[in-house]
Amino acid sequence: MLKPSVMPRTAMTGLLVLVLTGCALAERRSFPYDAWSLNFLGRPYMEIWIETADVVDIDDYVFRGAGSGIVSTGYPGALSKGIPIEFKGKPRGWPENPAGSGRRVWGADLPRLVYVRWQSMAEPQTYEAYIEIPESARTIMRSGEQAFCRADSKWITDYRNLLVVGLAPGGIAKVWVRGPCLSAIEVTRVQGTINPEGPYGGHSGGKHRPLTEESKAYIDKFGIPYGSW
């Protein structure tokens, strides 16, 4: 006859802490979904590397490392090799409905401030920006709307739970909120500043990450469209 297993006291304590923590987070959450996402995007050929992106929520909790690494730009593609015969990417301006890519900020309430430090490899230059998220943006993020999702052809109540930050040469940071099935709404635009320490906090001898061959060729031929972002 099989006997019921007994959970060790330490495991039971750990599980209880997790349950209580989850309940506490749910109680202080001011929005009706599990988590919101911090997404980033760049412009074609204007390659970007995020050194860090940190979030302060409306309860003044700090979430460090909420974003880092390469930012999606569309062109060059992940499988691109060499220099193409025709450059198909258009780096001027922003897409009508920007999405980007990123990760969920678990345990955070809605954002009050986003700090981002990034390498603009096209220039090259290292920027940082303190992005104050307005209350109007949080109001939108809390509000559900009826939306038709093409993925499964259903009407649902959707939320703009994606905070999308577009980064561009010259230290430009532009922010939208959008949902998986809801269009983007612009909420703010910030002019970043040059980080005085340089790339990697001054630990790389002033060397930025290198551009891909394709992006370098585009910039050598067409330049950087400052003023279009």
Give the overall form.
globular
- Uncertain stretches: 1-24
Rg for CA atoms: 21 Å
Provide the helix percentage.
10-25%
- Give the ordered list of helices and strands: HEEEEEEHEEEEEEH
Give the strand tally: 12
Q: What order do the strands of the largest sheet run in, or round the barrel if closed?
A: 4-1-9-10-11
Determine the structural class based on helices, strands and strand pairing. Answer: alpha+beta
Summarize the structure.
The protein is an alpha+beta fold.
What does this molecule look like?
The chain is of the alpha+beta class. The protein has one domain (33-222). It contains three helices and twelve strands; from the N terminus they run αββββββαββββββα. The protein has helices at residues 9-28, 135-142, 213-222, and strands at residues 37-41, 48-57, 62-70, 101-104, 111-120, 125-132, 144-149, 154-159, 162-168, 172-179, 182-191, 193-194. It has a five-stranded mixed sheet with strand order 4-1-9-10-11, with helices on one face. A five-stranded antiparallel sheet has the order 3-2-5-6-12, with no helix packed on it. It is globular. It starts with 8 loop residues before the first helix and ends in a 7-residue tail after the last helix.
Task: Give the topology.
Layout: H1 9-28, E1 37-41, E2 48-57, E3 62-70, E4 101-104, E5 111-120, E6 125-132, H2 135-142, E7 144-149, E8 154-159, E9 162-168, E10 172-179, E11 182-191, E12 193-194, H3 213-222
Parallel strand pairs: 1-9
Antiparallel strand pairs: 1-4, 2-3, 2-5, 5-6, 6-12, 7-8, 9-10, 10-11
